[in-house]
Design brief:
By secondary structure, the protein is mainly beta. It has helices at 2-20, 45-50, and strands at 67-68, 83-89, 99-101, 104-108, 113-118, 124-129, 146-150, 153-160, 163-168, 174-179, 196-198, 201-206, 217-222, 228-233, 251-253, 258-262, 280-284, 290-294, 311-315, 318-324, 329-334, 340-345, 368-370, 373-377, 386-390, 396-400, 411-413, 416-420, 425-430, 436-441, 451-453, 456-461, 476-481, 521-522, 537-544, 547-554.
């Protein structure tokens, strides 16, 4: 359909524009680069930076608060002193948040390589190459790992394609691996969320990309052996519908023996619509039996997944579970009953066309819970893209205009949350009012959350269009840290002198300078190989007063040539 082609062309141009932001970093919201650590020693320096702290799994723990509670000198007044310590390059895009423990960082990339890295020096300790799954939607390893001591052995668990791996942390030797699919190289089964490691279980979500005939849901594995302990089937034994995908990350309340997760959409609605479609689900930690299901939507074709990890927190005397949806709302539910306590309307979904089964916006990355504020970013759709929500009643305490579309969760400590997005910038925002207290430009889109460990921030970098075979050259992890005792920094990133008022505020670009500002410059088409029938060319020009960005392109050819076969966009 011509309308669909026009929408897909707009999507292609949007991605090219994000790439162009690397040419006009100042106009796209990035400030001057941070200083490098000058004369910093290595050796036992990691112990100084980490302070005996760890970030053991996605969100800092099974409650998925994405906030460190360990001792740290980082806060809204010191974040501007962060300096670059090292950059560890990965072989491809890095959309998994790092995990860190006892001087080692662990991370996988889209090529299927999993790395153990010395946090003092940024040098590799060991690597493990996972087998390639040719049917993955995006990359081989897209989600975080989890660390624990099982059977007296320190072990790191991570998914690659449709396989869960358990490796020894000391040398990368594989303890076990389990294929959670049906054993076919062409099946759509995939694990895209991080594992939940709690007690002796590794719990993962199963995504079949809306393909009927393949069973989605949640699987709990024995952490020592990989044996399946229980499964949750959103189709409840009926014919697999493709309407209960779990592509996010689960959370756990160990005291209540409960596991929480979100589910995906149903393109075949209204003919097919399960009770657990587009829902928040709670199951028993020991058996996988359902405790409750909360389903806010009637049957629809708007692609309104619960894609992120649920946050567990307490407010107003109640224990809650909260999670954002692609509809742009954040929901807080009673943890025991699943009853709705409040619902925050942060933004609208990024619908190209209502009923088109494709949304690019709303909450996709998880939020962080920092004190009495929930900090979360929303993806491509209506601005603004960064929100502060009161834990007690869901009131929007602030919304921040500088950040652009966000797919990643924050990593927080004290009163500062670090988050990156599609504008090639890692930011630290004060959680009380959203004021920017730190900015650091990078060379690629940030699609994963940083880990905050002691006085250091470990930020993963790099994304490319799903289905692109060529690796990107700028993926990796940047370590930023505060100056060590006796060390100085010349950072130019300062904390704000005024408090931002609640609500959206403007961005002053009057004195911005750089390539493409005021004068058109060539637009790169480098996110993926150019299709054979396309001869793309384009320009981009940024004007600062008033702000505008104009993109003109020609020669794109047919949209199908740019899109991944079988993807939602195609």
């Amino acid at each position: 359909m011509s309308g669909a082609n026009a929408s897909r062309r707009r999507a292609i141009v949007a991605w090219a524009t994000m790439a162009a932001c690397g040419l006009v970093a100042t106009a796209c919201g990035a400030d001057a680069a941070l200083p490098n650590a000058d004369g910093a020693g290595a050796g036992d320096s990691a112990a100084v930076d980490d302070g005996g702290c760890s970030w053991l799994q996605a969100g800092a723990g099974p409650e998925r608060t994405y906030t460190s509670t360990c001792a740290s000198r980082i806060d809204a007044t010191t974040a501007g002193d962060l300096m670059v310590d090292w950059f560890f390059p990965t072989a491809d895009a890095a959309t998994a948040s790092p995990v860190v423990h006892e001087g080692t960082m662990y991370l996988g990339d889209w090529s299927g390589l999993f790395y153990a890295v010395d946090t003092a020096t940024g040098t590799e300790r060991w690597r493990f190459q996972a087998d390639t799954n040719p049917a993955v939607y995006a990359g081989q390893i897209t989600a975080s790992a989890a660390l624990g001591t099982i059977g007296g052995v320190d072990t790191v668990y991570f998914p690659s394609g449709k396989t869960v791996h358990a490796l020894r942390t000391d040398d990368g030797t594989e303890r076990w691996s389990v294929d959670i699919g049906v054993g076919s190289d062409t099946e759509p089964t995939e694990i895209e969320g991080a594992p939940l490691l709690v007690e002796d279980l590794v719990i993962i979500g199963v995504d079949v990309h809306n393909n009927p005939g393949f069973r989605a849901g949640v699987v709990a594995l024995d952490a020592a052996t990989g044996e399946v302990r229980w499964r949750w089937d959103g189709d409840a034994g009926a014919e697999p519908s493709g309407c209960v995908d779990v592509w996010g990350t689960a959370s756990a309340d160990v005291e209540r023996r409960m596991v929480f997760f979100g589910t995906g959409n149903c393109p075949s609605a209204p003919e097919v619509w399960r009770p657990a479609t587009e829902a928040v689900v709670a199951v028993d930690l020991d058996t996988g039996a359902e405790r409750w299901i909360y389903q806010p939507h009637e049957p629809n074709n708007d692609d309104l997944d619960f894609a992120s990890a649920p946050n567990l927190f307490s407010a107003g005397g109640r224990d809650l579970v909260g999670i954002g949806n692609k509809d742009g709302d954040y929901y807080a539910l009673d943890r025991t009953s699943g009853a709705l306590v409040w619902r925050a309307d942060a933004t609208e979904p990024g619908l190209e066309e209502p009923g088109g089964n494709f949304s690019t916006g709303g909450f996709i990355g998880a939020a962080a819970v920092v004190g009495d504020t929930i900090v979360g970013g929303t993806a491509v759709g209506p601005a603004p893209y960064l929100h502060g929500i009161a834990t007690v009643d869901g009131a929007l305490t602030w919304q921040q205009a500088k950040a652009q579309a966000i797919y990643s969760p924050p990593g927080a400590v004290h009163d500062v949350a670090f988050i990156g997005g599609t504008d090639f910038t890692l930011r630290g925002v004060r959680t009380t009012d959203g004021a920017v207290v730190f900015e650091h430009p990078v060379d690629a889109v940030i699609a994963a959350g940083p880990a905050v460990v002691g006085d250091a921030v470990y930020a993963p970098i790099g994304f490319k269009e799903p289905g692109t075979s060529a690796p990107i050259a700028n993926g990796g992890v940047q370590k930023l840290r505060l100056p060590r005792p006796g060390e100085t920094t010349t950072s130019t990133t300062a904390a704000p002198t005024t408090t931002a008022a609640p609500g959206v505020t403007g961005v002053d670009l009057t004195n911005a300078g750089g390539a493409c500002i005021g004068t058109p410059c060539p637009l790169p088409f480098a996110l993926k190989p150019t299709p054979a029938d396309a001869t793309p060319s384009g320009t981009i020009v940024v004007r600062t007063t008033p702000f505008s960005m104009t993109v003109e392109v020609a020669g794109l050819g047919e949209p199908a040539g740019w899109l991944s076969p079988g993807s939602d966009a195609a």
